[in-house]
UniProtKB/TrEMBL annotation:
Protein name from the UniProt record: Solute carrier organic anion transporter family member
Membrane topology: Multi-pass membrane protein
Organism field: Fregata magnificens
GO molecular function annotation: bile acid transmembrane transporter activity; sodium-independent organic anion transmembrane transporter activity
Gene Ontology process terms (BP): monoatomic ion transport; sodium-independent organic anion transport
Keyword Transcription regulation in record: no
C-alpha cells in the first residue's frame, strides 16, 4: 500500500479547542465570584446552581446537535447527496462533524456579547457583605490604589513580578485544605463522568447496533438532564435549609455516597461479546 500524504488539519482543531478553552474558562471562576460578591447570601446557592445547570444543559444540546450533524454526509454542500449510495447505518459513513463547530462558534460569539455590558460593580446593601472577604479585599485594594501615587511602569520586571505573584497566589490556594480536598474530589468526579460520556455511546453502537446519530441522541436526552435537575434541586435545598459549610459538606457526602452505591449496579448490567472468529471463538 502506498502511504497517503498526512493532513495537518489536526493543528487547526488543536488551536481552535485551545482558544475555545481560553474563552470559556473565565466564566466559571469569575462568574461564581461575581455572583458571590453581589448577591444576597441566601440566594447565592440558587444562582450558582442555575449556572451549573445551564452548563450541564449545554452538552445535552451538543449531543443533540451532534446527532443531527451525524445524519448529514461529511461533504454536505460540496457533493451531490443523491449520488451517495451508503446510509448512516453503514460503517463507512462519516457524518458532518465539522458543521457542529461552526454552529457552536457562532452561537458562542453571540452569547458572549451581553457580557460586554455587565457593570464592573453592582450596588448591594452593606450589611449583606460584612462577612465577604473578597468584597472587603476589593474595597481595600481600591482604597490603596487611590491613596498611593501612580508608580512608574517597569516593563523589564513586569513579567518576572507577574510570575512571582502567580506562584504566591497558587501556593496560598493549594495550601487551603478545604479547597484542595474539594479540588481532588472534583477531579475524581469529572474523570469518571467524562469516561462515561466517552465510552457509553460507542458501547451502545457496538452492543445494540445503533447508529452514531441515535447513540448521541439517547445519551444527550437521558444522561445529562437528570444531572442538571439534580444540581438545581441541590441549590434550592441549600437555600431552603440555609446550610452552613459543615451542613453542606454532610449533604454532599450523603448524596455522593448514595450515587456511588447506585453506580455499583452498573457491574450487573452488560451484554455478551460479539462472536468474532479468531478472537472470541475459534474458526471451527
Amino acid at each position: 500500500c502506498e502511504k497517503e500524504p498526512s493532513s495537518y488539519m489536526w493543528i487547526y482543531i488543536l488551536l481552535g479547542n485551545m482558544l475555545r478553552g481560553i474563552g470559556e474558562t473565565p466564566i466559571t471562576p469569575l462568574g461564581i465570584s461575581y455572583l458571590d460578591d453581589f448577591a444576597k447570601e441566601e440566594d447565592v446557592p440558587v444562582y450558582v446552581a442555575c449556572l451549573h445547570t445551564i452548563a450541564m444543559l449545554g452538552p445535552m444540546f451538543g449531543f443533540l446537535l451532534g446527532s443531527l450533524c451525524a445524519k448529514l454526509y461529511v461533504d454536505v454542500g460540496f457533493v451531490d447527496l443523491g449520488s451517495i449510495t451508503i446510509t448512516p447505518q453503514d460503517s463507512r459513513w462519516v457524518g458532518a462533524w465539522w458543521l457542529g463547530f461552526l454552529i457552536s462558534a457562532v452561537t458562542s460569539f453571540l452569547a458572549a456579547i451581553p457580557f460586554c455590558f455587565l457593570p464592573k460593580s453592582l450596588k448591594k446593601p452593606e450589611e449583606a457583605n460584612n462577612d465577604k472577604t473578597s468584597y472587603g479585599l476589593l474595597e481595600n485594594m481600591g482604597a490603596t490604589r487611590k491613596a498611593l501615587p501612580p508608580a512608574k511602569p517597569k516593563p523589564r520586571k513586569w513579567l518576572r513580578k507577574g510570575w512571582k505573584d502567580f506562584y504566591t497566589s497558587l501556593k496560598k490556594v493549594l495550601s487551603n485544605r478545604m479547597y484542595f480536598t474539594f479540588l481532588c474530589c472534583s477531579l475524581l468526579q469529572f474523570s469518571s463522568f467524562i469516561g462515561f460520556l466517552t465510552y457509553k455511546p460507542k458501547y451502545m453502537e457496538q452492543q445494540y447496533g445503533q447508529s452514531t446519530s441515535k447513540s448521541n441522541f439517547l445519551i444527550g436526552l437521558t444522561s445529562l438532564p437528570p444531572v442538571g435537575i439534580g444540581i438545581f434541586l441541590g441549590g434550592l435545598i441549600m437555600k431552603k435549609y440555609k446550610m452552613s459549610i459543615i451542613g453542606a459538606t454532610k449533604f454532599a457526602f450523603t448524596m455522593s455516597f448514595l450515587a456511588y452505591v447506585i453506580t455499583l449496579l452498573h457491574f450487573f448490567v452488560g451484554c455478551e461479546n460479539h462472536v468474532v472468529a479468531g478472537m472470541t471463538v475459534s474458526y471451527e
